[in-house]
Amino acid sequence: MSFNRDIPASQRIRNLYHVFGPYIRPYIRRIGLAYIALGISVGAAALRPWPLKYLLDGVILHKTKWQWIEAANPHWMVLGLCVALVVIVIGESTAGYFQKLLFAQIGHTATTDVLERTFTHLQTLPRGMKWAHSGDLIVRLTTDVKTMRDLLVEYQQKFSAYLLTFAATVFVMARLNWTLTSLGLSVVPVIWIISFRFSRSMRVAARQKRTREGMVASVVHENLNGLAVIQAFAQEENERRRFREQAQESLEANVESSRLGGAFNRSVEVLSIVGTALVLGFGAMKVLDGSLHPGDLVVFAAYMNDLYKPIQNLSEVSVKFMDSLASGERVLEVLETAPRIRDLPGAGPAPQFHGEIIFDHVSFGYEPDRPVFDDLTFRIHAGETIALVGASGAGKSTILNLLLRFQDPWKGRILIDGTDIRHWKLRSFRRQIGVVLQECFLFRRSVAENIQYGKSDASPHEVRAAAKAARAHEFIQQLPAGYDTVLDELGSNLSGGQRHRIALARAFLRNASILLMDEPTSGLDSVTETELLETLKDLTRGKTTIIVAHHFATVEIANRILVLDQGRLVQEGTHTDLLAQPGLYRTLYEAQSEEKRLA
């Protein structure tokens, strides 16, 4: 998924604020207070040069129309004007502090809300999205979402402050001397033209920079996950070269973004100096011929900074804004990716299952016009244990994916206890199915928390009972902190068999009437596999169980075996019956037996 770069920046900004604007609406009162503080701060800043004007024109040069200034004691007047300057600065600083504090609170809170929504939405998306790699998604969820804080609040505050300062400065300068004000404003249209010409290039460069950073993160993430394979095949040098290529492309994108930003800022700075020189030169001539008070020129000189500084700041913020705009669009890409599977209108909570499963003329494929199944039909009785057997790519794991509604069929229905599974709410439906996957994914949490994943409200007693049923209690007790031992990433401080037993303990704890297992003994030695099979027999007792298996030792615990070939059901029966007749099952069994004999 990608955004159309031909859409004008203004439209893209409106799109982003249409989506993310509601996140700052709950804080509208705080925003109002922040803008009041901003107004006080800008007003105080506009008053800052005036004590100096009165000091110069009224006290030192005696060229003011305010007679009370000239009549006052000059020493007391100097003291009073200095105190006034300090009071103005204190008022400006105090208001500025509260303004920044309020905007920071709003920004961080709103960003946390966006982060939570993005994370929650990410959990609903289909696995293996082609437009985003895992490392890139991590960058979107962390760096890009945090950068959006500036987009939602920080830049709004800065744009408002700069525009308000610019407007107040122009107003006061125009009241003092319209001719000098016009000279100062003469370079502003040129600055805006340059800003417009640079903005598109900076936006494209910022998005390219973010994309390259995501690619670098993807390479790092992939290498960390595949470190053992990289080391085993001695591919460190190739991976280093691959990383360097991606890092170099990221570097070039960053340099290009910085080059454009630097050129833009320097152009604005030069034009600001030209405008200041025009005002000071013309104003100095006016002072020499007596048509302008020196104090007015001093005020103008002070205001020139307030006139051009907001424009310079706006130019710098515009560069960063483009970066944040790119980040916002990348987050929006995630949020606008619709979940492939969702609750249908009128779906209700799933009842307690008995466990009968029917595939009724099901057709499905992962790619258009390339079906995995075409009119697949079979029935599994409640409490029956079924093994799915077939060559790789036959569609065994796809059956589990369809049962869990990771995908929906193109045609046909999948029924549990006579009801189409699409008629139930996803979460209530999945809570009634136990799952043991081929890869026993363990979280970097305590052993107890990993087991409790099967039933989040389980008591410590239930967790221990499930561990005992999975025959995991003994080795857990020997861990440094027992059930409170925090596992390493992916459970790497446990053996393969121990990880499988933790996964089985989850299934025991859920105690669902339907159990799905995908290669539950994959990657285990024969001794561990034999021990685990005894546990599987206990786990499947009284449950409707579907086992995807390549190892025929696992298949033998099934009541019935379904043999699949290229998405078609070609054989079914018991292990003994299928061995007694020629066909795919016996061919696969004999091939595996021969592999074991040769090994």
Mean pLDDT: 80
Helix content: 55-70%
- Report the count of strand segments: 10
CATH level 1 name of the largest domain = Mainly Alpha
Gross morphology: elongated
CATH superfamily of the largest domain, called what? ABC transporter type 1, transmembrane domain
| Strand arrangement, major sheet | 6-7-8-3-9-10
As for the CATH topology of the largest domain, it is ABC transporter transmembrane region fold
**What does the oligomeric state look like here?**
single chain
The whole-angstrom Rg is 36 Å
Output the structural class: alpha/beta
Q: Per DSSP, what share of the residues sits in E-state strands of 2 or more residues?
A: 5-15%
Largest sheet: number of strands, sense, barrel closure? 6 strands, mixed
Report how far the terminal alpha carbons are from each other. Answer: 48 Å
Indicate how many domains the architecture comprises: 2
Provide a short characterization of the protein structure:
The protein folds into two domains: 15-335, ABC transporter transmembrane region fold; 357-598, Rossmann fold, CATH 3.40.50.300.
